[in-house]
């Protein structure tokens, strides 16, 4: 039994209510648009789509913790742009991983 359905052929555009001050026309869902859009609009559209996934704090069906200390979140954000594959460039990260 499928838990989700694929988009219909008629659902080939993204219609954004909250980014409408930047984008007047709908955007293609499955290909890159012909013209660029402002970064604020791109953020708003992606953020709106991700909100449809639900709130992990309200997920009572799984037995995992979806909350972490704010300090952990800060550490993740401080290192999110590191390329961990390049272990020579980031030796401290490699050492922390090995511990």
Could you characterize the architecture of this molecule?
- The structure is a single chain.
- The chain is mostly helical.
- 31% of the residues lie in helices and 4% in strands.
- It has helices at 39-51, 70-79, 91-98; strands at 13-14, 27-28.
- The protein has a two-stranded antiparallel ribbon with strand order 1-2.
- Belongs to the group II decarboxylase family.
- This is Glutamate decarboxylase.
Based on helices, strands and strand pairing, what is the structural class?
mainly alpha
Please state how the strands of the largest beta sheet are arranged side by side: 1-2
SSE ordering: EEHHH
CATH class of the largest domain: Few Secondary Structures
Low-pLDDT stretches: none
Summed over residues and divided by their number, the pLDDT gives a mean of 76
What does the radius of gyration come to?
19 Å
CATH-derived topology of the largest domain: MYOD Basic-Helix-Loop-Helix Domain, subunit B
CA-CA gap between termini? 42 Å
How many helices? Answer: 3
> Mind summarizing the main beta sheet?
2 strands, antiparallel
Please give the CATH architecture of the largest domain.
Irregular
Helical content, roughly?
A: 25-40%
Shape: extended
What percent of residues are in strands?
Answer: under 5%
The counted number of beta strands is: 2
